[in-house]
Amino acid sequence: MTELRGLPVYEDDGLPIPEVGPWALEKYRRVWYYDQIFSTGMKTRWDQRIYIDLFSGSGFARIRGSGQIVAGSPILSLRVRDPFTRYIFCEENEAFLDALRQRVAREAPSAHVEYVQGDVNQVVSQVVAKIPGYDKGNTQLSFCFVDPFSVDLSFETIRALGETRNMDFLILLALGMDANRNLGVYLQESHERIERFLGDPGWREKWREAEAEGLTFTYFLALQYIEAMRTMGYTETTPDQMYPVRSDTKNLGLYYLAFFSKAKLGRTLWREVLHYSEGQLSFGL
């Protein structure tokens, strides 16, 4: 099998494949690297290790421009040396989810995989229900990858997972590709997307104060998201510990991969990912 920037490349199998920009390769590389060090590093510490993907897609992605097909995050999670004990894939697009089922059946027929179809903001209770309970003889730790196309992700969705289960998160924050570009729209009192994203109806007043202090909207949202995660016990994260991804063409900031864990070991593993990331960029727009 050939590779593209370290990712496995596939032939077209005739099933649906969403198109993504070339910069998505860096996202997939980092999440796959964390999958590997998490699944191996935690295998002797926990009875069950659960991988959760809230925006799974179809399992494959076609790179815009080259047309090459690479494995998306669900398939990559199945290719680790020490497989997770359980996988939960959530996807709103029914055709994509059906394609993912078929690709998973080919790639890892013996894997324990659960599927949830629907908007994760509406079906998160179904995702939670598929995570095994925690007890003394059956310990479990989940790793949840959250990869939305915009900031249309309710913080209550993250809270439903983080407050009820032992879980680390790697969340794509679309702070450049969505939030920063649509600031004027989101500032309108009738628009609730940022309120839902942060779980904070008073965010506009906080933004006015931050803007007066010279903060960019991107940096402000990163700080506010960190603070929201802190309410659930996810501590010791800073914007500089987020991995920034920029477009290949105009070097525009698109999004940030933000890692959250309640455990020191999880944060240590994420720092290893950042160290591995060649040419790491500083946070800032």
Structure description:
The chain has about 280 residues and is of the alpha/beta class. The chain has a single domain (about 5-275), classed as 3-Layer(aba) Sandwich (Rossmann fold), CATH 3.40.50.150. The chain is built from eleven helices and twelve strands. The protein has helices at about 25-40, 75-80, 95-105, 120-130, 155-160, 175-180, 185, 195-200, 205-210, 215-230, 265-275; strands spanning about 5, 5-10, 20, 50-55, 60-65, 70, 85-90, 115, 140-145, 165-175, 245, 255-260. It has a seven-stranded mixed beta sheet with strand order 8-7-4-9-10-12-11. The longest helix has 18 residues, at about 25-40. It starts with a strand and ends in a 9-residue tail after the last helix.
Concise synopsis of the structure shown:
With 285 residues, this protein is of the alpha/beta class. 38% of the residues lie in helices and 20% in strands. It has a single domain (3-276), classed as Rossmann fold (3-Layer(aba) Sandwich).
